[in-house]
């Protein structure tokens, strides 16, 4: 495993992190989660990502059980808040009330005294930026949160939150968590340059484009039985990716991956990690074999001319 600094902070996270958005506390059992998490840790993964809203807290509970017995100092655990957790009018958003109560609830579910990274899961236009940053700064000073970041924020929003944090002498954010893969490159235009300037690193989700970039889905064919694409409860974000035009491009990428002795999935993860501003790619896994393959992308070096050919295929 290789490690990268999280933005300009001094902490280092594994190039491949393990997330539980669609799996922990939902599609796999706690025992399976524990076996995958512990295997990930054995392979050098220290970055484990979750959120309060993932299966309404069940993902945090499952992760908390899975890491029992692992030395807390060896883990870097990230969670998030913003989305509604109940019908309560204040049980959502980024008000001081919700941020503080969310952190306390997450700590209880995770069975931990602190989280390493607390992320604002989306931007909240209804809460003053000053209120957000002063609330999270208080939690940092209390020792309940070590670092904080944002998720799916625009370049302008990132610039605004850093400026506000500086104005109020509050702890600065260190990360942004956006979607990023060969078919979702929006952050390259503004978010990455702004983040580089202001000291935030990207911890990207969906680096395999919901599994499309593993090559398991073929043009003109239905989704394989048992895959995410065949699961109506998990494939809600895949419709635009399941088009033959996209799947044909994925097929053209396979020979390039073979040239550098990588599976297509590893190749796609290495493509994300070619960006210096990407601190970690977050993957999910339902089987240990999936995890082991994904971790194999860490530290891979691919010649620049290969990436040039990838750009040609994607633009065709």
| Number of DSSP E strands | 10
Q: Profile the largest sheet.
A: 8 strands, parallel, barrel
Strand % is: 5-15%
Low-confidence regions: none
CATH C-level label = Alpha Beta
Instruction: Report the structural category.
Output: alpha/beta
Which of globular, elongated, flat, extended, rod-shaped describes the shape?
globular
Percent helix? 25-40%
Under the CATH scheme, the architecture is Alpha-Beta Barrel
Strand order, sheet with most strands: 3-4-5-6-7-8-9-10
Instruction: Indicate the CATH topology.
Output: TIM Barrel
Number of helices: 10
What sequence of helices (H) and strands (E) makes up the elements? EEEHEHEHEHEHEHEHHEHH
What is the mean pLDDT? 92
Tell me the CATH superfamily.
Answer: NADP-dependent oxidoreductase domain
Description:
By secondary structure, this protein is of the alpha/beta class. It has a single domain, classed as Alpha-Beta Barrel (TIM Barrel), CATH 3.20.20. Helix content is about 35%, strand content about 15%. α1 (about 30-40) runs parallel beside α9 (about 290-295).
Brief write-up:
With 316 residues, the chain is α/β, with parallel strands linked by helices.
């Amino acid at each position: 495993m290789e490690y990268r600094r999280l933005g300009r902070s001094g902490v280092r996270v594994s190039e491949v992190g393990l997330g539980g958005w669609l799996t922990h506390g939902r599609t796999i059992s706690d025992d399976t989660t524990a076996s995958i998490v512990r295997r990930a840790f054995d392979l050098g993964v220290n970055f484990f990502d979750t959120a309060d809203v993932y299966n309404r807290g069940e993902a945090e509970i499952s992760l908390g059980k899975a890491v029992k017995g692992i030395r807390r100092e060896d883990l870097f655990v990230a969670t998030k808040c913003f989305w509604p957790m109940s019908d309560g009018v204040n049980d959502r958003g980024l008000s001081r009330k919700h941020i503080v109560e969310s952190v306390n609830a997450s700590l209880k579910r995770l069975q931990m005294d602190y989280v390493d990274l607390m992320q604002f899961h989306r931007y909240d236009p209804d809460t003053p930026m000053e209120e957000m940053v002063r609330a999270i700064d208080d939690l940092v000073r209390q020792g309940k949160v070590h670092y904080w970041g944002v998720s799916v924020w625009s370049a302008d929003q990132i610039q605004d939150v850093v400026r506000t944090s500086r104005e109020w002498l509050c702890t600065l954010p260190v990360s942004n968590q956006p979607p990023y893969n060969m078919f979702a490159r929006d952050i390259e235009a503004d978010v990455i340059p702004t983040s580089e300037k202001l000291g935030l690193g990207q911890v990207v989700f969906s680096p395999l484009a919901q599994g499309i970039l593993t090559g398991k889905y073929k043009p003109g064919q239905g989704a394989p039985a048992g895959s995410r694409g065949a699961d109506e409860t998990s494939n809600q974000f895949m419709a635009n990716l399941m088009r033959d035009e996209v799947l044909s491009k994925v097929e053209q990428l396979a020979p390039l991956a073979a040239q550098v002795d990588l599976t297509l999935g590893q190749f796609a993860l290495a493509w994300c990690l070619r960006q210096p501003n990407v601190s970690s790619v977050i993957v999910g896994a339902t089987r240990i074999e999936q995890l082991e393959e994904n971790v194999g992308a860490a530290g891979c070096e691919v010649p620049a001319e290969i990436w040039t050919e990838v750009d040609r295929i994607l633009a065709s």
